């Protein structure tokens, strides 16, 4: 970081300028959402899920989208993944306008979405085989193996999804998304169906995987869990209630990494962010006592 | 092997025996009331043993019941096999494409309720050959249940699975082999199971019409026209047992290819 508080003198001006340029190049934009509106045609008329949303995400950032059920956070996510087309505006991911899903964006779906008739190993292999067409078979096999080992499921590789617990299924889904080595990882309520204990260990595992990759992957995650959002993210995007949902506020999470689950909750900054998010999401904090 | 001798298995066998005993009792009673017009179980047993003496006799002038059974099964296999080969892809196509569904479904709805026997004379006219006409009839009646069930399977693929295909850029071939077929397979097998049941029922009727071959001929010529009612009863028992074995095969396949989500 260039210390901007020191005065720029005539002698070091080129040096400062070069350093700033370098910094700007590093802070590469990963996702650019420009005035995106998504409407669906329903029998009852046109339903606008999200309206005029703009957001810029840097490479390597972890962003959480948070809001009440039906506020369009999943719709916004699907617009980034290319599963849903923007009615107006556009999404630029990795420098390209999004028109369809692509292997540069890995998706972890809400309900794992593993194919129940394929083993854990084959579920990942099929995805790698389809997404990375220019790799040789040996390279694909190596990718599946390393990613399954990364989530500690190598010994379960021959099981069918029906034989796994929820947490294990989610790890398979995450390994599948990581194995195609996408620059952007999109997680749609990835831990929503897990119990609190499993959820906590999955948070750590996710950050481990992100660290292993030099924190170069951009992660966007839909959640409705405030603690989860703060622990994982650099910024939390709070959305208004739909229809025609917009961004209510973006809350920065300037907590240093690596974060410790136990210590972080006592950090005054954490508590401040937690309170802020809570008041953004919840209108009433108690029931009226008077009759 | 352990549970073969368990208490539960022993009880099932006992209940089965009890059921058979009651059926035998009613049969004997009917036989008595009709003054042996309907042969008693013991008389039928004598005829059964007689018929079973040389079941696979295959002389030009006389064929044993086993030979007749195999020729019926052969025709069912060919007709059912050809019908399934047509019904599965068309069913999957109907289930996958709304246009195909709108094109094919009305035709199926009109042809499905037609009695398989109505197709027999048409088959005769086309092939000028009664064995081929029976195969044609089996072919037609094997189509519908498989077609409808394959279409149902293909049209109920969960959005989750389709999303996986889109997200990871599956080719059409991969979508077919890794999602469409595996998901539809249990439904297809249900269709096949229904089809083989219909085919087995229809073959006997077809062979009565065509004459000269198979179990249907045995029932009609040797049994009814030959005035040997016991032979009809023997044939009914054999047809029933074979039919239930065919059904068992497909039940086994169903279990083999079902999966927990």
Stretches with pLDDT under 50, minimum 5 residues of chain B = none
- Return the average pLDDT of chain B rounded to an integer: 90
Assembly state here? heterodimer
> Could you describe the largest sheet of chain B, including whether it forms a barrel?
none
Q: SSE order of chain A, as H and E?
A: HEEEHEEEHHHEHEHEEHH
User: What is the number of beta strands of chain A?
Assistant: 10
Note poorly predicted spans of chain A. Answer: none
Radius of gyration of chain A: 21 Å
Put simply, the count of helices of chain B is 10
Question: What structural class is derived from the secondary structure elements of chain B?
Answer: mainly alpha
- Using the alpha-carbon principal axes, give the shape of chain A: globular
How would a crystallographer describe the biggest sheet of chain A?
6 strands, mixed
N-to-C CA distance of chain A? 58 Å
By secondary-structure content and strand pairing, the structural class of chain A works out as: alpha/beta
On the 0-100 scale, what is the average pLDDT of chain A?
88
Q: How far apart are the termini of chain B?
A: 30 Å
Order of neighbouring strands in the sheet with most strands of chain A: 6-7-8-3-9-10
- Compute the gyration radius of chain B: what is it? 23 Å
Give me the strand/helix succession of chain B: HHHHHHHHHH
Shape of chain B: globular
Strand content of chain A: 15-25%
Describe this structure in words.
In chain A, 36% of the residues lie in helices and 23% in strands. Chain A has 291 residues and is α/β, with parallel strands linked by helices. The termini of chain A are far apart. The mean pLDDT of chain A is 88. By secondary structure, chain B is mainly alpha-helical. In chain B, 79% of the residues lie in helices and 0% in strands. Chain B is built from ten helices and no strands. Chain B has helices at 7-33, 41-51, 65-96, 98-111, 119-127, 130-155, 159-167, 172-210, 214-225, 229-256. The A-B interface holds A 81, 83, 100-103, 106-107, 109, 111, 113-118, 126-127, 129-131, 160-163, 176, 180 and B 160-161, 163-164, 166-171, 174, 178-179, 182-183, 259-261.
């Amino acid at each position: 970081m260039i210390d901007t508080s020191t005065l720029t003198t005539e002698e070091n001006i080129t040096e400062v300028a070069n350093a700033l340029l370098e910094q700007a190049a590093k802070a590469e934009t990963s996702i650019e959402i420009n005035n995106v509106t998504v409407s669906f045609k329903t029998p009852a008329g046109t339903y606008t899920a999200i309206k005029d949303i703009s957001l810029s995400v840097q490479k390597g950032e972890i962003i959480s989208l948070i809001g009440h059920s039906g506020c369009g956070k999943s719709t916004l996510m699907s617009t980034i993944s290319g599963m849903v087309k923007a009615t107006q505006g556009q999404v630029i991911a990795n420098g390209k306008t999004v028109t369809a899903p692509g292997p540069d964006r890995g998706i972890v779906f809400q309900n794992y979405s593993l194919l129940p008739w394929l083993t854990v190993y084959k579920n990942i292999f099929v995805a790698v085989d389809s997404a990375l067409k220019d790799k040789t078979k040996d390279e694909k096999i190596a990718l599946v193996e390393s990613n399954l080992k990364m989530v500690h499921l190598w010994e379960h590789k021959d099981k069918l999804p029906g034989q796994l617990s929820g947490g294990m299924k989610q790890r398979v889904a995450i390994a599948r998304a990581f194995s195609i080595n996408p620059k952007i990882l999109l997680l749609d309520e990835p831990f929503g169906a897990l119990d609190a204990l499993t959820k906590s260990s999955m948070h750590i595992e996710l950050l481990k995987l992100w660290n292993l990759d030099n924190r170069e992957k951009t992660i966007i995650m839909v959640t409705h869990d405030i603690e989860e959002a703060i622990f994982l993210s650099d910024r939390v995007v709070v959305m208004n209630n739909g229809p025609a949902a917009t961004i209510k506020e973006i809350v920065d999470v300037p907590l240093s990494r690596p974060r410790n689950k136990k210590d972080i909750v006592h950090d005054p900054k954490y508590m401040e962010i937690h309170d802020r998010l809570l008041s953004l999401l919840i209108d009433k904090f108690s029931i009226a006592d008077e009759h | 092997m352990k549970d073969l001798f368990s208490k539960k298995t022993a009880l099932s066998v006992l209940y089965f025996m009890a059921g058979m005993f009651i059926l035998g009792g009613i049969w004997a009673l009917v036989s008595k009331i009709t003054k042996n017009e309907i042969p008693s179980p013991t008389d039928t047993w004598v005829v059964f043993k007689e018929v079973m003496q040389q079941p696979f006799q295959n002389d030009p002038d006389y064929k044993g019941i086993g030979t007749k059974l195999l020729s019926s099964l052969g025709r069912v296999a060919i007709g059912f096999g050809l019908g399934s080969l047509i019904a599965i892809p068309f069913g999957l196509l109907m289930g996958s494409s709304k246009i195909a569904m709108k094109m094919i479904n009305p035709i199926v709805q009109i042809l499905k309720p037609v009695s398989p026997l109505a197709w027999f004379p048409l088959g005769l006219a086309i092939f000028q050959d009664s064995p081929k006409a029976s195969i044609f009839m089996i072919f037609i009646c094997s189509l519908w249940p498989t077609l409808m069930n394959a279409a149902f399977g293909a049209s109920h693929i969960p959005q989750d699975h389709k999303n996986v295909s889109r997200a990871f850029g599956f080719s059409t071939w991969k979508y077919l082999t890794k999602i469409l077929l595996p998901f539809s397979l249990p439904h297809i097998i249900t269709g096949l199971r229904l089809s083989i049941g219909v085919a087995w029922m229809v073959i006997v009727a077809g062979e009565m019409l065509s004459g000269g071959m198979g179990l249907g001929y045995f029932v009609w010529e040797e049994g009814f026209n030959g005035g040997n009612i016991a032979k009809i009863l023997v044939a009914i028992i054999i047809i029933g047992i074979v039919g239930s074995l065919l059904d068992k095969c497909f039940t086994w396949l169903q279990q083999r290819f079902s999966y927990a989500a």
